[in-house]
Amino acid sequence: MSLIKKTKDKKVNFEFNKEYIRVVTSKIASNDAQFITNSFSEMHPADAADIIEHLSQNDRENLIKLNNFNLDPEVFVELNESIQTEIINYLSSDSIVSIIKNLDSDDAISILENVREEDKNNILSSLPPKDRFALLESLSYPEDSAARLMQREFTAIPSNWSVGQTIDYLRENKDLPEEFLEIFIVNENFNPVGTVPSSKVLTSPRDTKMANVMSESQLLVPVDMDKEEVANLFENYNLNSAAVIDRNNKLVGMIMNDDVLTVLKEEAEEDTLRLAGVGDEEITDGVLVKTKRRFNWLLLNLFTAFLATWCISLFGATIEQMVVLAFLMPIVASMGGNAGMQTLAVTVRTIATNDLTKNNFSSNVFKEFSIGILNGVIFAVISAIIVQIWFQDNLLSIIIAISMVLTMIIAGLFGILVPFTLKKMNIDPAIASSVFVTTITDVIGFVSFLGVGAYFL
Question: What CATH architecture does domain 287-456 belong to?
Answer without folding.
Answer: Orthogonal Bundle (1.10)
